Amino acid sequence: MTQYLTALWRNLNCSAAGDRAASSMAIGISDERIAWIAPQADLPAFERAPEFAEYDGAGAWVTPGLVECHTHLVFGGNRADEFGRRLAGASYEEIARAGGGIVSTVNATRAASEDALFAAAAGRLRCLIAEGVTAVEIKSGYGLDTQTEAKMLRVARRLGRELPVSVYTTFLGAHALPAEYRGRPDEYIELVCTDMLPTLAEQGLVDAVDAFCENIAFSVAQCERVFETAARLGLPVKLHAEQLSNIGATQLATRYGALSTDHLEHALEADVAAMRRAGTVAVLLPAAYYCLRETQPPPIDLFRRHGVPMAISTDCNPGTAPAVSPLLTMNMACTLFGLSIDEALLAYTRHAAQALGKSDLHGTLEAGRYADFVLWDVDSLAELVCWLGASPCRAVIRHGRIVHEAPGMRETGS
Predict the structure, then answer these.
(1) Res. 16: pLDDT tops 80
(2) Residue 328 phi, psi dihedral angles, 5° rounding
(3) Where does the pLDDT of residue 95 fall: very low under 50, low under 70, confident under 90, or very high at 90 and above?
(4) Separation of alpha carbons 286 and 155, rounded Å
(5) Cα–Cα distance for residue pair 253/255, rounded to 1 Å
(6) Which residues, other chains included, contact 67 with Cβ-Cβ below 8 Å and sequence gap of 6+?
(7) Is 403 exposed, middle or buried (CB count within 10 Å of its CB: 0-12, 13-18, 19+)?
(8) Among 396, 409, 394, CA closest to 67
(9) How many CA atoms lie within 13 A of 102 on its CB side?
(10) Distance (Å, whole) CA 155 – CA 114
(11) Which of 18-32, 37-51, 130-144 reaches the highest mean pLDDT?
């Protein structure tokens, strides 16, 4: 069958699958996917579709599209007041136990209309896209009842339809205990397992299942009930684990072959070894670490020693990580956690796609993957990590089409 080239990008510096290559590279696109990537002098012969477009990259550096593998983008209200309370010395746990934190966002999200949630989340998502994001995970977890969880997940699906980004949805019903179930956590988990998760999965709203396993949230036994339900429904799992303490969350997650465990400040070597055996990705969330003014970082050296892939994400949420900048998040990961520049770039591309179970679609520049990539106006990729407050993003290409561009980007011919 004849392969038609629908777009060609020339004169690029490419970071392909994590490896750096020389300049004067080219990327050929056919049917929304990368057909070819190599020195442009070696460009093979393709039939050209009528709408064939050719672009001059003018020496820009190119990376795969960034992948946000842990966000809470859909929510109502805001919790800016908690920032001041933390500055005054209140801890995350104290704020949560006083009725703030997640529960306050639940109240605002329940009261918000679907259109209002969409409009607010779309603004945040556009910020991510403008810094190179082409795929994003969006969690529920601010509804804590079937109706509102469904509303959040419908909004997430709509974001994926109406904005130029691939959206993957995660059910996080076991995020916090709603006020109406105070003192009855087992009864709430029963609701999650027998009503919420099966109903939402049947409606096609759930790609994966998450839970918050922590002293201020749900126990290992309660989270295991959620994972058992996910397994029966054929859904992959991930887990908020070892953020504030170590209660055995990672050990639970790895027993169920979790795609990722996230936060991990209090993970032990036995946890890291279990992640390696299970193929579980460590998702680092430095913005939450920074905003909570934590002092114990995740065990980066143990992840390296055991060969556990590390991903990074903004953790965009209204309270503990009000962050919408992947580039700043990469800087935080390097500055606060000690990641190298190459580790940070892999963490936002290849390893982040792995944390979503989507390595076959996103995260690398390879023939057959979606043509999702970013052009950067930089002399070296180190500039993506070191600068604060400015984005050198020239253009974002998703499925072969320009979806965001800086002024002056133009097609050069066809």
Answers:
(1) no
(2) -65, -40
(3) confident
(4) 26
(5) 5
(6) 133, 134, 135, 136, 311, 348, 349, 352, 353, 356, 358, 362, 363
(7) middle
(8) 396
(9) 19
(10) 7
(11) 130-144
In contact, 85 and 95? CB cutoff 8 Å: yes
Confirm if 40 and 57 have CB atoms less than 8 A apart.
no
pLDDT at 230: 98
Sign of the four-CA dihedral 88, 92, 98, 103: positive
- Cβ–Cβ under 8 Å, residues 375 and 25: no
Residue 98 pLDDT greater than 90, yes or no: no
Which 3 state secondary structure label does DSSP give 242? coil
Q: Running DSSP on this structure, what letter comes out for residue 257?
A: T
Give the H/E segment covering residue 383.
helix 382-386
Nearest CA to 96 out of 111, 112, 85, 109 is that of: 85
Taking only the tens place, the pLDDT of each residue in 67-91 is: 999 999 999 998 888 877 888 888 8
Asked whether 129 and 163 are in contact (CB, 8 A), the reply is yes
What tokens does 57 get?
């990259």
Q: Is the pLDDT of residue 106 over 70?
A: yes
Q: How far apart are CA 134 and CA 353, in angstroms?
A: 11
Q: Is residue 408 predicted with pLDDT exceeding 80?
A: no
Q: Give alpha helix (H) positions in 256-325.
A: 269-278, 286-291, 300-306
The secondary structure of 99-163 as a DSSP string is T-THHHHHHHHHHS-HHHHHHHHHHHHHHHHHTTEEEEEEE--S--SHHHHHHHHHHHHHHHHHS
17 backbone φψ class: left, alpha, beta (φ>0; ψ -120 to 50):
left
What's the CA gap between 377 and 370, in Å, rounded?
A: 22
Between 24 and 60, the more confident residue is: 60
Give pLDDT tens digits for 245-261. 999 999 999 999 999 99
Alpha carbon distance 66, 128 (integer Å): 9
Residues 6+ away with beta carbon under 8 Å from 316: 68, 71, 72, 73, 124, 128, 322, 323, 324
Q: What is the mean pLDDT of the chain?
A: 93
